[in-house]
Amino acid sequence: MLYTFPELIALLIVICGIVLQTWFGIGFGLVAAPLLFLINPSYVPGPILILGTSLSVLVVSRLMLMNNQGEFSWRRIAPAIFARLPGAWLGALLLVSIPAWSLSLLFGVTLLLAVLLTWKVFKVQTTKTSLIIAGFFSGLIGTATSVGGPPMALVYQEQNRITIRNELAAFFLIGTPFSILALYLQGNIDTEIAMLSLKMLPGVIIGFWLANKFDGNISPKSAKPVLLLVSAVSALLVIGKGLSGWLGT
């Protein structure tokens, strides 16, 4: 496959986002989605969701092959998975019901709020109720904007890094395909989206390999400020783009 210069930049962004997601269970949508949106709005939400699902397949497959399920519980994550389904459908309806500039504003503001919540680190216990609420909003926001990780991350913030990575991978592996299906039924997945996703798949493989190679050398405390800074700047840029479109209407 031949890549244009913007596509090579997009591939690099995908690699960086996949590395963060593999380390911490969240980060791909938060970092990659706003940057890819600026390159080509078609990257959001379809290709982001497809690429995120591909990463979840790799993480869960490794978990099963290594028989390392001590830091994993299907029973705990199940309520969030079921709650994601109605949220995903509502998110798909929202996506086809508002103009592009409104989606830009929604996307940017949602991301900025997610950054602020992560920065403040509100302590939320990992209970069945909190998982149901987080799963629903993850489906709604994730389907509409491709940034569905923060609601789940807030609920899991008191868990250890390996548990977060494994259980969120399972959550996205099962839940995200329903978001993709909802988008397809609403006419938001076509040949262009499929090709964009296919060309970015090597970034998933490379990012996953790099993350595992350097996993032992990374501290969550050192990466978090960088993740939040990039996300906040990206959110502000997308909000600016939405305001520009609004003023131009």
From TrEMBL:
Write out the GO cellular component annotations. Answer: plasma membrane
The way it spans or sits in the membrane comes to: Multi-pass membrane protein
Taxonomically, the superkingdom here is Bacteria
What sections of the protein cross the membrane?
A: 12-37, 43-65, 86-119, 131-156, 168-187, 193-214, 226-247
Q: Sorted alphabetically, which Pfam families does this protein's record hold?
A: TauE
Q: Which InterPro entries match?
A: TM_pro_TauE-like (IPR002781), TSUP (IPR052017)
Query: Which key words are in the record?
Result: Cell membrane, Membrane, Transmembrane, Transmembrane helix, Transport
Chief site of localization: membrane
Where is this protein localized, as stated in its record?
Cell membrane
Task: Spell out the family assignment given in the record's similarity comment.
Answer: Belongs to the 4-toluene sulfonate uptake permease (TSUP) (TC 2.A.102) family.
Q: What is this protein called?
A: Probable membrane transporter protein
Species source reads Amphritea balenae
